[in-house]
Amino acid sequence: MGVHLITRAGSGIGATVAGLLAEHGEEPWLLARNEERAEALGTRFLRSRTVMADLAEPSVLVTALEKQGLPDRLDFLRHVAGVLEPGTAAGFDAAACQEILVTPPRSSR
Q: Which CATH number fits the domain that encloses residue 91?
């Protein structure tokens, strides 16, 4: 069984990944940006654990995660934002990467 930390698990690709992993006996840990979101994820994905941290605040991310009792190991980090930015990796700058990582989803299906 693998331990997976999954971002953006509330909708779209992230929700599908979280559900499939749980169905296959994996251990999903879902990253929620606030307490309300953590509660919603916990209700939807009963076989998962949630931790709260806002990716928009990278300077406090490590501290936030350390205070919540993460598992001893993580086998996979799955950042499934589902954002499409056509182009080459070489043409992608740090500001664009940061924007993709922290921008809330456009819709919550």
A: 3.40.50.720
